[in-house]
Amino acid sequence: MFDEKSITPGLSELGYVRLKRLTYKASWSSIDVEHFLFASLYGGGNYFLCDFGIRNPGAEQFGLECLKLFGGPLFHDVRFDPRYGCSRFPLGKLAGWSRWSLTISAFSEVAFADKVKGDIEHLLFPVIRSILSPADLFSLLIKDVEPCRWINGATRAAEVVYLGRRLGVTTSELRSMLQPYLTLIGGSIARGGTGEWQSPTAFLEKVLHYAN
User: Fold this and answer.
1) What is the pLDDT of residues 134-179, one digit of tens each?
2) What gap in Å lies between CA 147 and CA 122, rounded to an integer?
3) Residue 39 neighbours by CB distance under 10 Å
């Protein structure tokens, strides 16, 4: 049986503050880049999943606005959660957990807590702990590499545009940088739930214009 109290001391030592059940924010977040952990259970509560989240609040809000405005009717009701709405990535994939999850019954309570803490400290932190500025986040999001592969491509493209423009990257440079991701952008807005094709090129051009 999972007891959240078993992991909170270790997460606290790593600087994560509990916001609500199974949701944590890093106290070492900066004003520009906020870091989160989102845990969940399945399989009768015997399997533990954990995602890490990272966001610039302005970029996250802009990305969802663009999805709502330009992504098609399916996305007209998307909303930005100012508390902890952000892109999420699986810790278990990075850490090599089976099916990206931990089987709670396979560990003692202490061993389980140590496993979660250790994988965050030794595997996740080397990747994300230093991402604290808009430039850091832009450099992370423009790449399609583990553990932050491109998912929700349309929203991510808009976030890249938002950050890039504020860093002085020109519209033409951003257009060129995002060309390799057009298929991924299109994959997240294709047909928009209406059967009508949504062009990723058209979406990107609207985002680039909206950011100026």
Assistant:
1) 999 999 999 999 999 998 899 999 999 999 999 999 999 999 999 9
2) 14
3) 18
Q: Number of C-alpha atoms within 13 angstroms, CB side, residue 141? A: 34
- Structural tokens at position 65: 């606005």
Beta-strand (E) ranges in 67-155? Answer: 87-90, 102-103
Question: How big is the chain by its Cα radius of gyration, in Å?
Answer: 18
At position 208, the amino acid (one-letter code) is L
Of residues 128, 103, 130, the one with CA closest to residue 115: 103
Question: From CA 106, how far away is CA 38, in angstroms rounded?
Answer: 21
Average per-residue pLDDT for the chain: 93
Q: Which distant-in-sequence residues (6+ apart) come within 8 Å of 103 by Cβ?
A: 46, 47, 48
What per-residue confidence (pLDDT) applies to 80? 86
**Which residues make Cβ contacts (< 8 Å) with residue 93, sequence separation at least 6?**
100, 146, 147
* pTM of the shown model: 0.93
Q: What is the pLDDT of residue 190?
A: 64
